[in-house]
Amino acid sequence: MQDAAQRGYAVSSSEWDEGLTAVAVPVTGRSGTVVASLSLSGPSQRFPYEAVERFAAELADAAALISTQGFSHPLSHSR
Predict the structure, then answer these.
(1) Rounded to 5 degrees, what angle do the CA atoms 65, 71, 72 make?
(2) 32-73 pLDDT tens trace
(3) Which of 3, 21, 24, 62 could disulfide-pair with 44, CB 3.0 to 4.6 Å?
(4) Element holding 78 (H helix, E strand)
């Protein structure tokens, strides 16, 4: 968990399902707290570990865009 916080993304490789790799990044709300995450997963043979950093960077860009557009928790009454 600490490694994920330092890197800015989390990786799972065959931890929950054999042959499945996933990467996830946090999405922050207006207050800066994590309110959601974005993830990408697929078969490990088509999702080589070498591609994880590239996928994480692209997800982080998307998460930043969501955050700057004022993403708030879907159950929040303030919009």
Answers:
(1) 160
(2) 888 899 999 988 888 877 888 899 999 999 999 888 886 555
(3) 21
(4) none
DSSP state of 1: -
Measured distance CA(31)–CA(15) in Å, rounded: 32
Residue at token pair 């207050």? 31
User: Secondary structure of 25-62 in the HEC alphabet?
Assistant: EEEECCCCCEEEEEEEEEEHHHCCHHHHHHHHHHHHHH
| Domains (range + CATH), the chain | 2-68 (3.30.450.40)
The length of the chain, given as a count of residues: 79
The owner of tokens 């708030």 is 72
Q: In what order do the strands lie in the sheet with 34-43?
A: 10-13, 20-28, 34-43
